[in-house]
Fold this protein.
Amino acid sequence: MSQFKTIRLREEGDTLVVCVGGYLNSLLGEEVESVVRARLDVGGRRILLNFQGTQMVNSIGISFVIGVVEKVMERDGRMAFCEVSRINRDLFRVTGLEKYVHSFETEKEALDYLAGNA
Amino acid sequence: MRLFGTMGAETSFREEDFFGREEELSTLTRAALEGSRGIGSSFMIYGPPNIGKTSLLLKLAKTLGTSGGGDGIPRPFPLYFSFSQILSHPLALSQHFLQEFLSQLLRFLGDARPSAFDPATMCDRLASFGVTGCSEVLAAHTRCTAEGDGLSALVNALSFPFSASGELFYPVFLFDDFQYTGKLQGVPEGAMLSILRPYIKSGHFPMFLSGSSPGRVTAALKREGLFGTFQMIEVGGLSTDASVRLWGYLCERRRVDIPAPLLPRASERLGGIPAYQRMLVEEIFFRSAKVPDAVTLENLYAVSVTEGKLNRYWREFFENTFPDRARRGRAIRFLKRVLCDRFPLDTVEGAVSLMGVSEEEGEAILSALEFKGLLKADLDQVTFVGDPVLADFLYWAFERGVLGKGTSQVAAAIVQARLFHTAPEPGQGGDHARRVAIVKELMRKWDLREVPLLLFDFGKFREKFGGKGLLEVVIGMEGEAVRVRLPKVSSVSTGYRASRGAPRFDFDLVAYGFLEGDFSEENLVIWAVDAAVEKNLGARAVEHFENRCRLLALEKGLPPDRLRKWMLIDETADPAAVDLASRYGIHLSHPTQLRLFLNLFGLEELEREPGPARSPGPEAPRAGKTVEYELILPIKADSEVVAARVAEEVAAFAAVDADTVDRIKMAIIEACINAFEHSASESGKVRLRYLLSSDRIELFVQDDGKGFRSGTPEESKKNRGWGLKLIRELVDDVEIVTGPDGTVVHMVTHLGGDPANPGTVRQGRGGPASSGER
């Protein structure tokens, strides 16, 4: 059921902002992974995942996010999360994601961090 | 040369059609027979038009025609005569009366009915029976007629039966439509009674006057000093028992089937008036209609009334009595106010004032109505008759004439008014509007899909899990043999609610669609949808909805299977309402089912109206009571979302905080994914149970797969295998029971907070579990 796969991309300076909407499952996770990989392939190094519209997450979706984080780190990129709900923050903590990626309350804070202003 | 016989109701009278009125017949027969001893009483029989007065007189005539006499006692000779058929000139009346008398007497004495009026021959025949003096009376009558003396001719004709009687018989007059005698030209009102007065007073010649204008006739009786001599008998509808027997006879004759339990209600509906019963059975027969229940009967009745099938008499009466359209309209409006709206009236002045016309015109209208018995008694006490068909006819005529409403609309109104169902409160916006909007969106989306009937059928859940809880949800492949084919919906319109406090006739939504995608008339399907306003859906609301659906089907000419009916429950439903809906083929859906639908169609739920904070309502589980929900999911991508939605709904019942809801949702999603990925279930199903009690929510996810195999690498995907670990973090207790027949993951969230760790996920304990941790 592809209706849960909603992803929106935006450029903010050098940063690719990926807005993850709906249900972060394997399909949406794959999609996120694909757009981030494409960005890295063309030389982009700053990635922001905005989880404001993410209503539900499952462990497979999280596994893809872990994969994305690993790829960004492999390419010496910089990555951040923003607007993560309380439950998702807890899930990221349990899976250890928060050790590797900074999470911010607002997109602006995250963008400032990625731009090196923070 | 005139042919014999009047052509009124008496020509169509069939004795076998006559039912009931045993008491009246017995009283009248006894009085008539007592005439032989000079102690016979006379009766004034009154009642509204169509009620069956004529039938009563004709039945009495038949009874008298075969009774009495012998041993030298003269037999009563019943002479039925209706004044409604005659010309208003007294000469014509007297001529007609003589014809009738001679003809009926000959038949009474055993002769065949003469083919034409030949007075001389008839006098000779009468003489052969011993009735003499006939020629002299005829000669006198001819003389009066030649002189144009109407009154003398009338006296001559009316007196003849008395002078002609004797040892053989005595006349018993059965005078029908007696009020017409007040309209004879050039003859004072009451002249008839003056002529008959000495005979009435004698006690030898009982007389039965019948008419629908008792006010007019009793006034005349009083003027003639005869009022005390007459006994009054009011004829109303048949008793229920007699009326039911009549139904039985009529239905048998026309091979029409009306279920016996409906008959008393049908009798009440038609006021027990035999003429209407006959006409309704004819209508049912003519339409080849089936009458399985009261609603169908009401609908047939209402349509028949609005099409003028039952009340032709009234239509003709108004057209003939008030040829002027404006005056006819006034009369109808006036009667509608008084009969249908029960507008209180007790004086003539009040009546005239209600009509809003001059006193002269008002009195003319009242006089015409009174003449037809629409005013029950003298005008100093204005009381109207209760004839249900007349009332509905007036209602129809008014709505059509004044409001321009169509036949079907008025029929709907009549049924609604008569079924006497309390309408639900007017719509309330808010949650109601939201539910309607959701369904509207759903209907726009669906396009020749098939969905499990269980998504629609709340009753099936109850049947399956009766008594276990207030809501049970099953979706998926179990018992999926029954599916609902959704049409291609081409338009969905939002109804409106009647806000006048009157019963509502509309729907929240009406959708037009086509089966098989072919936009043809034969494929038209209409969905009528209502979102219940009341928290607890009752049987009345279901019946009310069903009634409107039938009217809609009637109006659109839809076969029953092409009208789909769907009601949305707000919170709960009475078992009786669920049963009734099932009987009527109404789909019932709970809000939870609606959510499942949304998931099926891939729709986001619309924003909930801001409302008061949710608190444990009457449905929230009380101490010691456990509510159980069950869900069967197909193993199919993303169907775990359905499980999460249900979990959300369950948690909402318990009024738990948002974080706890989220944790429960995530836990069940993980448990489902685990089962989907690892069980290799042959049935392709996963069964979920939600147990809600006052202190905990328990979730069971059960599959019938191969069971837990510790340490077996189930998959090799990178970064995977977090499922069970997450579950352990999300809920308070987890228990896994596994075996060759499958696995059950049992998760418990304690309500009321975990004091050690309120509303948070416990800290992680390292990396993901090893693959195949199940």
The helical segments of chain A are 26-41, 59-74, 86-94, 107-114.
